[in-house]
Every structure is written in structure tokens, then in C-alpha cells.
Amino acid sequence: MSGFWKCVLYAAALALLAHPLGQAIPGPFDPEKRPFRSRKWEQNGRIYTKLAIDKWKKLVPDMSRILPDMVKKELPGSGAVTADQAAALVQETCRAELVHGASCLLGLAFLWLWPGWGGVIVLAVWVLLANLPSTAMYYEHVLSTDLSLLIESPDHVVDLVFPRDMNVEKLINDGLMVIFFFVVGLEIKREIVCGELSTARKAILPVMAAAGGMLAPALIYLAFNHGTPAAHGWGIPTATDIAFAIGILSLMGDRVPVSLKIFLTALAVVDDLGAILVIAIFYGGAVKWGFLFLALAIMAGLYGLNRLGETRISYFLIPAFVVWGLFYYSGIHATLSGVAMAMIIPMRPRYSKPYFFRQLRNFTRSLERVREEDERFPDAEQRYYLQRMKDLSYNSIGMSYRLEDLLAPYVTFIIMPIFALANAGVRIDLEYLDIFRYSSEGGAVGMGIFLGLLVGKPLGIFLTSWAAVKSGFAEMPGGVSWRMLLAVACLGGIGFTMSIFVDALAFDEEFFVNQGKIAILLGSLASALLGALLIRVTMPAVKN
């Protein structure tokens, strides 16, 4: 499955990047020098004749008309070619050779390295795309493309636009990210119901650690930006990207005790819940209560269905789209509808444990009886019983678990890369790169975010955990030392997805948004490297 989506993402990246990046490569090129110079085996074109290139090459469409009034495949029958046209064709051929070579390298990055360092390569490519003079306008144009549907009456008395003010960027941030937050909500619900947050004794340490890990970065940010127009961005460094943090921890293999992995997972889940509350309370627009109350009424009805024992998925997912639309128009950020709906999704299975085992025994006996009569496996009757067993197993898993397992690959390999590609692109400018600059008019957005992630997050997590354990409110995870806890706490400074999301909500000014993005990327990278280094130093390889 992951291999398939790697190929899909690779093809999409080529489609978006090949032409604009190719045109951005500076020329002119010298066709007599490497890598353009013909090799001996290429001279006279004999090898291409043997391979019949001319027969199948015509089937490949030209990406565009690279020369005025001339298409490459039409050259043999086009008559005389001017010297300028010939020179231009040589230059474009050299340019195409560079693009094809780069495409091969990009393919290796996707197919071999994703989702590890390949993600970093993709991010770097997209930042490049947002900054090259020939592609920056193209990048912004794609994101700002209007996607609203206009319905007009013949007399123009009634005009309906839905969704209002919807473009590609909003579709990603307010539409696709709803699925991401829906999965996050399912994870939070699972941990609260039957995971590491199901009892007070289990939950107290990650809850207090997450609270400290949100408070400390916010205070550091406000220390640099209090009283300035940038003060509203205090929520940016409070978030932790659970996927990246857990991913780096997983790369450490058996160095990290299982108890510490569980602690970081629970902490990240609580942190996500805190980030959701921050977005809902502090970064929403003016609330239109009519839309909000209607959404809440629908959700109340769905909660009633849940309590009555309804487990059919269509009864919940179809109204979820209506709830999303109502949230979108209410002024509450639309992504929060995903979290709210996740809390309503039933966790109970359709079939009980006694019923499952009783039916399973019946199907198993039927299969054995058929097998004794006919040695072929599976025949038509056996396929019937196998299908019934499959349906029995499927409906013995709660809807919440099924949706989480179903959506997780799409969130990981499609939604998150698309979000990163749409939001991580930032125009590189010297004034944006100077993240440690302070001014009375603009504060110090970059410094507050960078130090909030790199220093505030680990200090808040570590000191709050230390206070909780020393005071007797919580217990240290088994087999974990304070040095280990500090090393893992550094990974909490990886804000990336959630921080970029809050950054877009907190600021309207381009300067603040772009400097915030750069500070988030640098702070997250520094936190990841520091955390990985400390884990290497403090944790010997152990068997879990």
C-alpha cells in the first residue's frame, strides 16, 4: 500500500515540478561539454535506430510547445528550420536532459527514502519551488485558484455560492485537514477510553508533562513579544507534531524502552488535545451562533444514535459532511468538526464477544465438514463460509478502530504531504531568515518560536514531570531515567504540522507568517537533531 502511494506522490511531484523547475534552470548550455556531449556509442544515431526510438517516441506527447510555431515531433516534416530555431532546440534539449536526470534522483528519494529523509527532500524541493522567480507566481496561483461552486437563478434573484471563498489552499487546510483532525480525535478517544489515559494513575504524568510543555513555550514566546502586534502568535510553539516525534523515536529502534515510547505517545495525544482547545478558543473567527447550534443539534442526534446502539457507518459519516459545512460557516475553524465527530463515533462492535465465538465455532465446524466431503479448498460452499467469517470478524471490531486503521495510511502518505507542500513553501528573504531580530513594532516572532520549541518544550515537559514524580502525584515509567526523559522531551519541540497550522491562523501579515514558518522549520529540525543525539548518548541498545 505504501509503495503504491509513493508512486502516486512521485508522479504528482513530477507533474507539478518538471516543467516549472526545468524552465528555471539558467542557461545557456554548451552542448559540447559534459553532460551533454555525445558519447561514441551515440554518434550517428545507430543505437537509437536499432532500438526503434523513432517509432515509439512519437507516441509520447510534448509537454508544451517549447519553440514558437514548432513542435518537436513535427520537425521531420516541417521543412526548413532556421538557425535560431535550431539553436533554441539544442538549448531546450540540454535543459530536458538535466530535468530527466533530476527526475530520476527524485524518484529514488520517493521510492527508497520516504517517509524518512525523503520527506525532508520533498520539503526542500517545495521551498525551492516557492522561491524561484519563474515558479513562485505559479505556486501562489495554484494555491489561490477559486473552487467555489456558483448556482444562479435565471433572474439572478437567488445566487448560491458553496463553499464560500473556497480555494485550493482552503480546501487543504479546511477540508483535507479535517480528516487529519478526525484521526487525531479517534486516537485521543481510544487513549481516554482504553489506553494510557483511561485511568487517573496512568494519565497524570503525561497530562502534567503536556501541560508544562505547552505553558513554557507560550511564556518564552510572550517574553519576547508581549505588547507587540506579534503577541497573538503565542500558541504556535505550544504544539507537538505527534507523527514526526514518534517517527524519530521509532528510528532509534531498541535503544528506547517501551515504557518511554508509551509515555511520549500519551504526552503527544494530550498535547494534540491541548492544541485543539487552543485553536477552538483563541484562533477562531466571529462565531455565527445559528450555524453552530444547528451543527451541535445534529451531533446531539448522532450521539443519541450511538447510545441506542447504532453501528452502521453511513449513519455517522454522511451527516459528518453537513456538520463540516456548518462549522465552516459558523466561524469556528472547520477542522474542529473532525475532532467533534470523532468523539461521537461508536467504539462498540456490532457483535458481542459470546456471539462472535459461537458463530466462529459454527463456521469452523461447517468448513471441516465440507473438507471431509471434498478435498478441494476452497470450493463454492467453503468460500461462502469464509466470507461469513470475514464479515463476522469485520463487524466484531468497533467502528472507531476500523476508521482509524482505514484512514491512517491516507493521512500519512497523502494528506500530510499535501499539507506540507501547500503550507511549508515560504519565500526565502534575508529579513525572514533573521529570526533572532527584535523590533518594537514587530516583536521577535522568529526568536519566540525557535526558542519556544527548542528550549521551552523540553524544559516544560521535564520540569513538570520531575515535580509530579517528586511530589508523589505520578510515577516514573519503568526502566526510565531522568536523562532518558530529558532526551525524549527534546522531541516534543518538533512542532512542524500543528505549529504551521496555528501559524496560518494566528497571523494575517505576510512577514509574520513567513518568519514564523522559517522559525518552525529551524526549531523543529534543531529539536529533532538534539533529541536524536541525546537518545544516542544516554540510551544504550536494550532489548524490550
Tell me the name of the CATH homologous superfamily of the largest domain.
Answer: Na+/H+ antiporter like domain
User: Can you list the strand order of the major beta sheet?
Assistant: 1-2
- Which stretches of 5+ consecutive residues score pLDDT under 50? 63-70, 112-118
Level of helix content? 55-70%
* Order of helix and strand elements from N to C terminus: HHHHHHEEHHHHHHHHHHHHHHH
Distance between the termini: 28 Å
Largest sheet: number of strands, sense, barrel closure? 2 strands, antiparallel
Gyration radius over CA: 28 Å
Kindly estimate the percentage of residues that lie in beta strands according to DSSP: under 5%
* Second CATH tier, the architecture of the largest domain: Up-down Bundle
How many structural units, i.e. domains? 3
CATH domain class of the largest domain: Mainly Alpha
- The outline comes out as globular
The total count of strands amounts to 2
The CATH topology of the largest domain is given as: Na+/H+ antiporter like fold
